[in-house]
Amino acid sequence: MGFKKAFEPAEFDRRVSHFKQRMQEVGFDLLICQDPANMGWLTGFDG
Q1: Pick from 20, 21, 15: which is nearest to 38 by CA?
Q2: Using CA atoms, how far apart are residues 23 and 21, in angstroms rounded to an integer?
Q3: Assessment of whether the complete model's pTM goes beyond 0.85
Q4: 44 closest CA partner among 33, 21, 25
Q5: Pair 44, 7: CB distance under 8 Å
Q6: How many CB atoms lie within 10 A of CB 4?
Q7: pLDDT digit string, tens, across residues 1-39
Q8: How far apart are CA 13 and CA 21, in angstroms?
Q9: Other C-beta atoms within 10 Å of 46: how many?
């Protein structure tokens, strides 16, 4: 039984690049994400 990823690598890349673009637009250098739902949406991490 293998590990089931939350989404494909292309979707991960799309989400991360979108966040990087938005962070640059508003002048943020760092994103702190504490809510598990937000971490799951952005990275697929569930643990």
Answers
A1: 15
A2: 5
A3: no
A4: 33
A5: yes
A6: 5
A7: 677 788 888 998 998 899 899 999 999 999 888 888 888
A8: 12
A9: 8
